[in-house]
Amino acid sequence: MGLALVIPLASIEVSLLISPAQNVEAGGQSLALSAGPSASTSGSGTLELFGQSIPTTQQFSGPIRPILLWAEVTHYDELLAALKQPGHLGQAIRDGWSTYFVRQLLVTVLVAAVLAALSLAVLRRRWQLIIGGVVVAAVVAGGSDALAINSAAQGLQQLSQVRTLDQLVGRAPLAVYPTSHRAPSATASTVVIGDSTAAGAGNPPLAKPTMEDTACRRSRDSYAADIAAVNNSSVINLACTNASIEQGLFGPEEINDVLVPSQLARLEALQGVKTVIVSIGANEMDWTQFMELCLVSPQCDDSASAAWFSQALDSFTVDYYDLLQRLATLPGLPRVIVNEYYDPLPVEPDCTGEPAITTAKSKVLLNRLTTFNTVLADGAESFGFDAVAPSFAGHELCTQQSFVQGLDDAAPLHPNAAGEIAIALADEEALLNPAPPRPTGAATPTPS
């Protein structure tokens, strides 16, 4: 009788080790679903996300717990669309786990049969006992797996309540770091946040810069200054060179020996904000460095640079979603404009000297820039924000009236004063049109 208990338990353990994971395509993501044993009678499953092991928010009964492996974010637009129909997303994952458990049940029965046959053969028992052992092992193992399937189905049913990416993967959203001392609230109709493109790096400095302005390389020719001049309005430029979503917007940024407080914390302290303009993502993508490396290399369509770009884009999209969710809950619900990035290179370059700027390199960079801008635009649209695409067509690098700083200038490949005006005009054109409607229902983000 001891074999009737030992064999089923051993067969379940072995089957969990040798059963292949179930691959599932859900929301444009490649997921691998499996299960693992646990010493406790109930608890959480496991999410293997981007190299980290995180417990699920769902709880499962029984010693067999589901495992979900998600190595990287791909096809972010499909993921955002799937999150608007969470029932379909949850169903795909539930179906995948059901398929896995059915297959794992069959493997368990086969392993139980082999173990029972070997054990009883060693003991030289009759063939009738071998058959009986197989039946008992199959029943016990099958019952355990059936319980696991039922438990998984109950826990995974909670996926129908998923509304945001962090709820799906159990990821803690980025938190805004408050300033050490909150200054009295100022008033501004428009606020610009972001990186060196918004700061106006490489252009003439402000007339009376603070230490922070100098460290961040804010310019009197930034598009924030242009918008203020055109509209004769109050525009505050919080943008800072080298800023990223994590270090600059959500958290403080240390640059040129100056600690610059969180741009979002400052934004939330302002009064009367009607419009927020955002330029962000180039630093997460190492975009300037990527372009410069491409231009000095013989070619830039190699597998290594493609993998570098893909990994950077995957990481950026997750933080970008956190940023959009935070902007959607700003006090007063100001209009939000997300600036896409300009293309600094012509399709058919006519540049002399070094480095060699070829048509092939321009096409590679344009293709990757388009992919990056698509993430920016689709994310903005999903939250009911404007996505603005400034055009430098006819004014790229090496043209007679270039909007781009040269490779030997103070901020290579960044907009010059004319380029900043072009971005300001694109933002102004968006402001002349009615704001897009904010999404309702599943598309409406909730405060963290």
What can you tell me about this protein's structure?
This protein is an alpha/beta fold and 448 residues long. The chain has 2 domains: 2-169, no CATH class; 190-443, SGNH hydrolase (Rossmann fold, 3-Layer(aba) Sandwich), CATH 3.40.50. The protein is 44% helix and 15% strand. The protein has 13 helices and 12 strands. The chain has helices at residues 2-18, 76-83, 86-122, 127-156, 165-169, 196-199, 211-216, 223-231, 263-269, 287-296, 303-327, 359-382, 417-432, and strands at residues 22-26, 29-37, 42-49, 52-61, 64-70, 190-194, 235-237, 253-255, 258-260, 275-279, 335-339, 386-388. It has a 5-stranded mixed sheet with strand order 1-2-5-3-4. A hairpin with a 2-residue loop joins strand 8 (253-255) and strand 9 (258-260). Helix 1 packs across helix 3 (86-122), helix 2 runs parallel beside helix 12 and helix 8 crosses helix 13. The chain is elongated and about 90 Å long. The chain starts with a helix and ends in a 16-residue tail after the last helix. Residues 155-166 and 441-448 have low confidence and may be disordered.
Summarize this structure briefly.
The protein has helices at residues 2-18, 76-83, 86-122, 127-156, 165-169, 196-199, 211-216, 223-231, 263-269, 287-296, 303-327, 359-382, 417-432; strands spanning 22-26, 29-37, 42-49, 52-61, 64-70, 190-194, 235-237, 253-255, 258-260, 275-279, 335-339, 386-388.
Our Rg estimate from Cα atoms comes to 28 Å
List the helices and strands in order: HEEEEEHHHHEHHHEEEHEHHEHEH
How many helix segments?
A: 13
- The percent of residues in helical segments reads 40-55%
Report the structural category. Answer: alpha/beta
Number of domains: 2
Please tell me the overall pLDDT: 78
Assembly annotation: single chain
Q: Give the full name of the CATH homologous superfamily of the largest domain.
A: SGNH hydrolase
In what range is the share of β-strand residues?
5-15%
Q: What's the CATH architecture name of the largest domain?
A: 3-Layer(aba) Sandwich
Distance between the termini: 55 Å
Annotation, overall tally of beta strands: 12
CATH class of the largest domain: Alpha Beta
